[in-house]
């Protein structure tokens, strides 16, 4: 009875405050910087500035393929289940790559975007990162778990984008994914070094590839500008 009386009293007080025109304090959401790319400074590595978000349209290139992938705990997932519902940046790498203009560059860009997302409140509700290995023989579940440790152990991870580090059970599972994305990989000559084209892919919530980035276009400012353009498209802006 005492609890009911207290709740009733609070309800009456709230109604009285509304009748008298009092404003009940509510926490205001932290504003997200716009353009989002402003969280990064211009870099001499890129000889252009991204256009204003929403001033252009990203065409639907094709549907991103489905496939079976393994996460850092060894759980199997449908790639569609992971990508549908959020805007995704997808990269294909192999963890032992030593080409500074290859996988390490893609990883560095993802770390930059991941860290900067802390300053973009709420973006983690709409956007995620996916890194998929194209060397499942060496990039085992144990290997990708070790790679992902700085991500999973980050005390601020809850304020940043979700980052899925994935591998596959082997070539039969991997090949349809690579073919569907158009990610070129060639290991015919040197079994230690895998020849490949560096590519990142922007996938919308519906599973359509909306942009493909190669060497020279991996400016984090451009990635965030394209993501902001998709968010504006969704909002009808």
Automatic annotation (TrEMBL):
Residues 58-232 form the Thioredoxin domain. This is SCO family protein. The keyword Acyltransferase does not apply. Disulfide bonds join 97-103. Keywords: Copper, Disulfide bond, Metal-binding. The keyword Cell membrane does not apply. Belongs to the SCO1/2 family.
